[in-house]
Amino acid sequence: MSIFRLHDVHKSYRSDFLRRRKPVLQGVQLELAEGETLAYLGHNGAGKTTTIKALLGLIRVDSGRVEVFGHRAGDPAALARLGYLPENPWFYDHLTGREFLHLVADLHRLPRSKSRRRVDEVLELVGMTENADRRLRTFSKGMLQRMGLGQALVNDPELLILDEPMGGLDPVGRHQIRTLLTGLKEQGKTIFMSSHILSDVESLADRVAILDGGRLKRVVDMRDLEGVGVAKAVRCRELGPSAVDRLRREGYAVQIRGDLASIAVDDEGKLPDVLQLIHSEGGRLLRVEPLRSSLEEIFLAEIGIRPSPATKPEPEHSSSIQEATDEVVEAVRDVQEVR
Ligand SMILES: Nc1ncnc2c1ncn2[C@@H]1O[C@H](COP(=O)(O)OP(=O)(O)OP(=O)(O)O)[C@@H](O)[C@H]1O
Ligand SMILES: [Mg+2]
């Protein structure tokens, strides 16, 4: 069964004093199946939040159809079956976590007899039981995000619509939300989440819809990406300067940190040569791993960015989808290697 359906949706906003209209969604066509996790990926300003607002009936689209649970978007019968985490949730910060969830339960007209148990369940689910009686204003960003997710769960919805659920969180916070969402997915919830960060959605999503400039460029089924060959990074130690020079002369990008070398190999066919060279020059191979994920390659191609064939961008040249998280993961790996 289809949970929601966007059919040829167009939306524009008046953009300046000449009252010209700027197209924001241009023929978006997307369907979400029951039990599926669909990530909506796109740059800042691509139109993700606009799509979500259309699904909730918060804005009127110019043309096209938006159906949720078979109803017109915004229909109370549809809203009752979904939970929504806005991009910038606004909290009544003088309330405690528990009071806030009770308020949400009241808005859903949950009878008091039921709401007490449900609020306790939700607090447990989002790992906030211990802090439930502290005021929201004393919460960290990560805790607030968990409360935001909690409020979306109070009515035990079948569908979760999450606008940047990991937005603004540090790697630990991202990990916590990702774990939480994995649990909800396993419980059978249907999830639609927007993000502009690939690494956040890669492990969670069943499908990824790539939006660019209001147009849906491609919908990737993550199962199709298994085993797809991508550029590799060869990590090794104790590679002498002459070997580094040779590799660079042959066109490979080599990054050096202390005695660690990372060689980007864009063509899998060249891998044996590179490994042979490392071996013959006395280098010690640590590992070979994908340089970019298959999804990242597709995403970059769809939005028209071609990474230079064998180069992972340096931090100062990072594209906006190249996340600080990746840098942290790299750094942690390097530390592990040094140990
Ligand atoms: N109420 C509005 N009036 C005029 N323009 C708007 C309005 N809301 C959104 N826009 C414009 O529509 C475009 C898409 O915005 P939207 O918020 O949907 O993007 P997004 O993909 O969610 O971006 P982000 O990743 O930054 O959240 C942007 O250019 C934005 O400036
Ligand atoms: Mg947005």
Spell out the blueprint of helices and strands.
Layout: E1 2-14, E2 21-33, E3 37-41, H1 48-56, E4 63-68, E5 71-72, H2 76-79, E6 82-85, H3 97-107, H4 112-125, H5 141-153, E7 159-163, H6 171-186, E8 190-195, H7 198-202, E9 207-212, E10 215-221, E11 232-237, H8 241-249, E12 253-257, E13 260-265, H9 271-280, E14 284-290, H10 294-302, H11 324-338
Bound molecules: adenosine-5'-triphosphate (ATP) and magnesium ion.
Walkthrough of the structure:
The chain has 339 residues and is of the alpha/beta class. The protein folds into 2 domains: 2-225, Rossmann fold; 232-291 and 307-338, 2-Layer Sandwich (Alpha-Beta Plaits), CATH 3.30.70. It is 34% helix and 27% strand. The protein contains 11 helices and 14 strands. The protein has helices at residues 48-56, 76-79, 97-107, 112-125, 141-153, 171-186, 198-202, 241-249, 271-280, 294-302, 324-338, and strands at 2-14, 21-33, 37-41, 63-68, 71-72, 82-85, 159-163, 190-195, 207-212, 215-221, 232-237, 253-257, 260-265, 284-290. The strands form 3 sheets. It has a 6-stranded mixed beta sheet, sandwiched between helices. A 4-stranded antiparallel beta sheet has the order 2-1-4-5. α3 crosses α4 (112-125). The longest helix is centred in the middle third of the chain and has 16 residues, at 171-186. The model is unreliable at 309-339 (pLDDT under 50). The structure holds adenosine-5'-triphosphate and magnesium ion (MG). The site of adenosine-5'-triphosphate has 12 residues, from α1.
